[in-house]
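Below is how a single chain appears once it has passed through the pipeline. First comes the sequence as given, then the structure the pipeline wrote out for it. We keep one example in the README because the format questions we get most often are answered faster by looking than by reading.
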Amino acid sequence: MTTFFVSRHPGALEWAKQHDIAFDQHITHLDPIRVSPGDAVIGSLPVHLAAEVCTRGARYFNLSLDLPADLRGRELDAATLEQCTARLEEYRVEHAREKE
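Resulting structure:
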C-alpha cells in the first residue's frame, strides 16, 4: 500500500511536513493508473480524478481550505494554509452513471 501526496505547491508540502502527515511519494500530478486498492491519495484533486481513485479501491483525503476570495489564484505558504484552516477530509467519490 502506498500513500501519495499530490500537490505542485511548496506551501502544501511544507504544511504536510509540519503536521507530520505520513506519505510514501510526493508527486505533482496523479496518473490514476498508479493507484491500487488499499492505497491512499492526499491532495486537492479534480472530482473526476478523485472518483477514479475511489473506483480503484483507494482512499481519497482532500486537502481542504477555507479560502477567502482574495487569496484565490495565489501561491500560499504553510502559515497561510494554517490561517485558512487547512485540514485533511476523507471523501468517497463515485461517478453517477445514467441508466441506459
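The helical segments are 10-18, 47-55, 78-83.

See the next section for the split statistics.
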